[in-house]
Amino acid sequence: MDTFIRWEKSQEFKNIATLILSSKQANDLVEIYDKVKAKVSGDNLITKL
Questions:
Q1: SS3 for 1?
Q2: Can you say how many angstroms the Cα of residue 31 is from the centroid of all Cα atoms in its chain?
Q3: In angstroms, rounded to a whole number, what is the distance separating the alpha carbons of residues 21 and 12?
Q4: What superkingdom does the record give (predicted)?
Q5: For 1-49, how does the pLDDT look when each residue is reduced to its tens digit (9 = 90+)?
Q6: Spatial contact of 7 and 13, defined as CB atoms under 8 Å apart
Q7: Which pLDDT score is estimated for 49?
Q8: pTM of the model
Q9: Contact 46/40 with Cβ under 8 angstroms?
Q10: Are 18 and 25 in contact (CB under 8 A)?
Q11: Is 5 helix (H, G, I), strand (E, B) or coil?
Q12: What number of CA atoms fall less than 13 Å from residue 9's CA on the CB side?
């Protein structure tokens, strides 16, 4: 158990966690963009403006 706790405090673990969280954040932004894009094209807001 102590080995795992030491590894969680290591710089390597922090780097890996940062990469994973950044990747998830990027995927969330792409998903939001795609949903907004679909909503805009579905509503034809561009032609109404």
A1: coil
A2: 9
A3: 14
A4: Bacteria
A5: 799 999 999 999 999 999 999 999 999 999 999 999 888 877 665 555 5
A6: yes
A7: 52
A8: 0.65
A9: yes
A10: no
A11: helix
A12: 5
Q: What is the DSSP letter of 45?
A: H
Q: How far apart are CA 20 and CA 15, in angstroms?
A: 9
Within 10 A of 13 (CB to CB), how many other CB atoms are there?
Answer: 13
Tokens standing for 3? 């080995």
Nearest to 11 by CA among 46, 19, 33, 31: 19
Q: Report the 3 state secondary structure along 8-41.
A: HCCHHHHHHHHHHHHHHHHHHHHHHHHHHHHHHH
**Which token pair is 13?**
């673990």
Q: Copy the structure tokens of residue 14.
A: 């922090």
